[in-house]
Amino acid sequence: MLWACVLLPHLALDGVLRHRPDDGPLVLVAGSANARTLVAVNTAAREAGLRVGQRLIAAQALLAHFEVLPYDKAATERWQRFLAAVAYRYSSEVSLLPHALVLEISRSMGLFGPWPRLAAMLRVDFDALGFRQRIAVAPTAHAAWVLAGIGDGQAVLTNAALRPALQRVSVRKSHLPDAATEALPGMGIRTLGQLLSLPRDGLRRRFGTELLTVLDRLIGDQPAGLVAWRPPDTFDLRIELTHEVENLGALIFPLRRMTSDLAVYLAGRDGGVQRFVLQLEHRDRPPTAVVVGLLAPERDAGMLFELARGRLEQIRLPGPVLGMRLLARDLPPFVPAGRDLFDERPAHALPIEQLRERLRARLGDQAVYQLGSTTDPRPELAQTVAAGADATHERHPRPSWLFARPLPLRGAPPRILAGPERLETGWWDGGEVCRDYYVIETSLGQRAWAFCAPGEQSGWMLHGWFA
Questions:
Q1: DSSP label at 18?
Q2: Where are the domains of the chain?
Q3: pTM confidence score
C-alpha cells in the first residue's frame, strides 16, 4: 500500500481568509476572556510583529489596529471534512487525522498516473480552494503524516526505504503519545532511529502498549487503525459576512466561492445537483430563500454560479444580509453529456441543456416551453412548461416557437418545403379540427409551420416559427 498525507497547517486561518477579499492584519484567538492567546496570524499581522502564542494584550501593544476573530473549532472541522470530499475524488479510502488528511493511492496511480503527477493534481485543487498544504507519501498512513510534518514533498515509495527515512525524525515531531514525547528526550532518546533500536520489552514496561502500537503502525507492522471517511449525502455551507450587505452586487463574490465549493464537492463524490437553496440571513427577519431548481443534474462550477446569480438578481432584499447559507439535499448521480468526436459546433457554443437552464434562471420557470408528448395530437395542447430532463423527439418537424392560436399569413404566397401532414381530431370535445400542415418558406425567407383547409392552398394560417 501507499499512502499520501495532505497536512493542513493553517486550516482554521485559511477557512476564514478564503471568504475575505481584504488582506489587513487579522488574528485568531482562543482561551479565556482574561487570557486570550493568538493561535493563528495572517501575513499582514506577522509582518507587523505578531506571533502565534502571544497574549492578545501583548499583541495590542505592538499593533494598534488589527482584526480579532475567535478560533472556531467546529468550523475548522467542517473545512477538514469539506477537503476530505475534495480528496475523495482521488481515492475511496480517505481518513481524517489532526490537521491532516490521508488517502490510500496505490490503486489511484493506475488511473491518475505516477506520484509526481498525482501530487501536482492535489496541489492544484487545494491551492485553487485557498488552503495551504504540505504533501508527503509513504507506505503507511502514519509515516506519511510524520514526513509531511517535517517537510513538504517528502516521498518514500518503498517499504525498504521507510526505516532509513524515519531515522533522523525527532520524537517531538513523530506524533507519539504525550507521555513518551515528554519523557524520551530526558532519557537521551531524541530521534525515531534511536527509539526503534531500543528493546521492545523495556518500552512496554516503561510506557505500556500504546507506544508500541503507534510505532508498529508507523513502520507498517500493524494496520493503520483508521476510520474511513465517507462523503455525506447533503451539502451545507454557511459563511458570515464581514459587514451588513444591502446591495445584491456585493453578494456575487461569496456566491461564486460557494457555488465553486459545491462543484468541487460534487466532483469528489462523482455526483450532481438538481436543486439547492441559497438562504440570505437577516438580523430581525426570517431568511430569504432563493431556490435554484434544474431540469437535469449539473456540477459545472460556472453553470451553477450563473444559475444561482440569475435567480438571486430577481429578488428584492427585505433587509441587510448578515450571512449566506447554501444547502443542497437533492444530489442524484451525474452522467456527463457525450459529444461527437467530429462535433461541428463552435468551441464556446452552449449545449441545449445549459442554455435551457440559463433561460429559466433569467426569465423564470414559466417562460421556457417545450413540445411534450400528450394523448391529444392538437398542436395547441402539445406545448407545455418544460418540466422534464428529456425533450420529446417528434417524428415530424415542429416549430420551436408555437403560437397560442393560429394567425393569418399575409403577403405573397409561400414556398412549400414539406408536407402535408394531416391532423384530424377533437371531435369528442367540440374542438374538432381538420388541418393539413406544411413547412413553408415565406417571401421574406422565414421558415414557418402553417396549415390550410384540406384540398386548398389559399388562406394560409400561420401556427409557428422554426428557429
A1: T
A2: 3-24+72-219, 235-330, 399-465
A3: 0.69
